[in-house]
Amino acid sequence: MMRSRQIKEILIRYVFFLLAFISIAILAMILFFLVREGVPVFDEVSVKNFFLGKYWYPTADPPDFGILPLILASLMVTGISAAISIPLGVMTAIYLAEIATPRVKEVAKPMVEMLASLPSVVIGFFGMVVVAPFLQDVFEIPTGLNLLNASLMLAFMSVPTITTISEDAIASVAPELKEASLALGATHWESIIRVIMPASLSGVSTGIILGMSRAIGETMVVLMVAGGAAMIPGSVFDPCRPMPASIAAEMAEAPFRSEHYYALFAIGLVLFIFTLMFNFIADYISHKHRQVGAATL
Amino acid sequence: MKKKTIGAILKTGVILALVVCFATVAWAEKLSIKGSTTVLPIAQKAAEEFMKIYPDINVSVSGGGSGNGIKAIIDGTTDIADSSRFIKQKEVAMSVENGVYPVPFAVARDCIVPVVHPSNHIDDLSLKQLRKIYQGKIRNWEAVGGPDLEIVVISRDTSSGTYEVWEDIVMEGARVYPGALLQASNGAVAQAVAKNKYAIGYIGLSYLNKELKALTVDGEAASIENAIAYPVSRELFMFTKGWPTGKTMKFINYVLHPNKGQKIVSEVGYVPLY
Prior knowledge:
The structure holds two protein chains of two kinds. Chain A is built from 13 helices and two strands. By secondary structure, chain A is an all-alpha fold. Chain B has two domains: 29-109 and 235-267, 3-Layer(aba) Sandwich (D-Maltodextrin-Binding Protein, domain 2), CATH 3.40.190; 110-233, Periplasmic binding protein-like II (D-Maltodextrin-Binding Protein, domain 2). In chain B, strands 1, 2, 3, 4, 6, 7, 8, 9, 11 and 12 form a ten-stranded mixed sheet that branches.
């Protein structure tokens, strides 16, 4: 009897270990595959020309594999969308966690989370058919498929991530802190800004970084609304082509194991490194600023 | 009690039916077709009609692009590859290395048509004007006799078959300038041009619709009747692994038959060859 219980225990341990191991193994294999299929491009083009080259003509003869316009486009789209989504997302989170009445929160929170369940192709379609003509008319620009449009759509997509995680962080701040602050005569606003926000900083930052990493990796939306011009954008009204859009648009037709194919995998590798960095930053912040215990006696 | 028996009989019946279904699927011969989304409508429709005649052959059709289709021929994972371009030297070398000899069959002809917004009063552009527009040398419609508006150039992703034909015939090897917008499909180009009075794009003949104005090139209109004289046209291919035999041959024969497959070709908006 005792023995069978022990065996069961050991068995369960191994099963769980195996399951955890599988997901890590898959990640390792994907990384291996990316490196194996991406690195050969550097036989064809120097590392410097690949990262700093200004022209992306993968199928021309001779081809140009400069991904600087693509990297800059990705960074600019992500930066501008963050500038829109961070204030929007964090303020929504503060409102939901601190200000909204329970009844409002009950309705509003699921609605914000529902934004996250919108398929990206639907958001892309919205951007293409509704937002693009709108931008074109309002700003009198030649095309509405541009950096600004893509940033707006990506901001829509990262707001729910930022709001949900931030709201959880703000709501889980120990009530003692808030009560102490109010007891000391601080107003509600002062308590939010001086006490609650610093206490929930790690959670809020994690939310922001995860929201941004979602934006930089998003493919369908930028493919549909960013315009796709492989040039370094000069203004927010210029069309641009972020990295994921280039991969998605060209991969299907790139001849197997050609330089173009390798170059696209190398872009994938660059993209992977970007999102990995975002995740490391999120992890670092959430550990560094983790609040240990509530300051009560 | 009685209800139970009826239930049991029903259940057995359903299970039997399922088993029979699976069995027939398993026994039927399989023919897989993969590749260019341009050729897809032909392959799809031909496969449907083909299976009515040969119910024992199960044809599965998927897209994925010309490159992917030819890759599948090289790997041996498909029977027929659709392609909107001819096979490349490198791909031939790779398939021969794998012991596969790809055989091309031209199945249809497609015209690629420059399109503008219906409000644009331009009707005709020469190949040279088109080239200059796509090189970014002509930036305003006024230079080609149109309204005083900036030109928004819309192109396809550089590895699509449509782009390659455009590059070959219109650009003659010159590069499309980096400021050109990129769309990932014929449908997306049509959508973008229909929404933008500044725009010019190019699409396959079958994607023309009322919201777009097709231009004539060097005075030649793109149409099924005028396909030979029209300058920007290409052949569409199906590739097989070696000279086709058995089910593959039956399908290729069906597609090339003037009263069967070639009729489908014109039904879906391309130009029949036979």
